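Example 4.3 (complexes with small molecules)
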Amino acid sequence: MRGKSTEEAMVSSGMNAVEMLKADHRKVEGLFEQFESSTTKREKMKLIKEVINELTLHTKLEEKLVYPILLEEKEEEDMAQEAFEEHHVVKNVLKELSSMDGSEENLKAKMKVLSELVDHHVQEEEKEMFPALEKTGEDLTALGEKISQEKMKLMQRGSGRRSTRASAKSSGRKTATRSISRSTTGRRKAS
Ligand SMILES: [Fe+2]
Ligand SMILES: [Fe+2]
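Answer. The structure with fe (ii) ion bound is encoded below.
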């Protein structure tokens, strides 16, 4: 049996949902910073791969476990829809990045645009969405536990890496984000 990786140790550290998602945000920001100062093609490609994996995992977790809670709240519905759309744009860029080999002259520009998209999205999540999530009365510790379990599951399946590669190859594949319906019942606290 292999030992726990740093990542696995982190996801099971008992952080609540918001703390956990913010930690992901900081991690990705760090990767973008490293990319900015990286000099070799090898280093750049390694960082791009990490960004793709991190963002693929993170967006999946939010779409499956966090955004549906806000879609159920009348006043937060528009914000959640907007966040899905922003993920959609981010994923399109990730798809393009995943088919690049490092020789493209627009690689740096593409990463810059991605980092700006992510930065804008993160600002909205942290300034508006997460405070709104806190107000829903959802148990954020339990949600954190759910997120960390789902994260482990996805990481064990290597889902992030595989799905990005697969989606780069089959361009016709639809993103399933919108299928996370409003039909999630029983989440709302009884009023
Ligand atoms: Fe997000
Ligand atoms: Fe996020």
